[in-house]
Amino acid sequence: MQPYPDTCPCQINPTAETANAALSYQDCCQPYHDAFYNDEVDKADGIKAVTAERLMRSRYSAFVLIKPEYIVKTTVPAQQGLLDFDAIESWAKETDWAGLEIVAHTPKLGKRHAQVEFKAYFKSPEETTSGLAEKIQAHHELSTFVKVKDKTSHDARWYFLDPTVAMTVTQKQPCICGSGEKFKRCCGGYI
Predict the structure, then answer these.
(1) Cβ-based burial of 55 (10 A; exposed 0-12, middle 13-18, buried ≥19)
(2) pTM of the full predicted structure?
(3) Are 122 and 96 contacting, i.e. CB atoms less than 8 angstroms apart?
(4) Which candidate, 125, 130, 132, 143, places its Cα nearest to that of 58?
(5) Is the pLDDT score of 11 beyond 60?
(6) DSSP letter assigned to residue 84
(7) Where do the H-state alpha helices sit in 74-177?
């Protein structure tokens, strides 16, 4: 078992001009990860992301700490079986993560959607005249999230909508999030 970092990965921002008091992993993303890994999702009502930004931060930390199961389980359920688990795990392992910057959080888009614009920083080798050096680059993304109600408990939970997943859904079919609306009037506008 790998040791956990003192500072939560989602709290590291290499572009911040001033350092805020960063939260530890134990006080930040670990409770979210532990709830999923201990199969306590149904029992963990108090341990769920209350905003799309909070879910995005926990997903970033899951990439850094190589927790592909968490990445899959926090993607909208209709897409989970279509994800390439091995590719997610490989990308997480092969990337030298350097930090996270939240550019913007739009907490309410319509009835159940939100967006988080972020930059996930990573290190990559760069050739210089004196040899190899590490250069920090950014993966800049605008991610969409949907709040889905559980049919039995009526509890709502945020999920990531993955625009890279090839799906065969028409605009007039029921939405993949289970809202009961047509796909085009719900998540279709964001995928």
Answers:
(1) buried
(2) 0.87
(3) yes
(4) 143
(5) yes
(6) -
(7) 77-80, 85-94
Measure the CA–CA gap between 75 and 161, rounded to whole angstroms.
Answer: 6
The phi, psi pair for 153, rounded to 5°, reads: -90, -15
Mean residue pLDDT of the chain comes to 87
Distance, first Cα to last Cα, the chain: 36
The pLDDT value given to residue 41: 46
Domains of the chain listed by start with CATH number? 9-163 (3.10.450.50)
Predicted local confidence at residue 75, as pLDDT = 96
> Residue 58: exposed, middle, or buried by beta-carbon count in 10 A (0-12, 13-18, 19+)?
buried
Which tens digit of pLDDT belongs to each residue from 104-147? Answer: 999 999 889 999 999 999 998 776 677 667 889 999 999 999 99
d(CA 22, CA 13): 10
User: What's the CA gap between 108 and 115, in Å, rounded?
Assistant: 8
- Residues in Cβ contact with 15 at an 8 Å cutoff, skipping those fewer than 6 apart: 99, 101, 119, 121
pLDDT tens per residue across span 66-119: 999 999 999 999 999 999 999 999 999 999 999 999 999 999 998 899 999 999
Distance CA 28, CA 189 (A): 32
Tokens representing 4?
């956990």
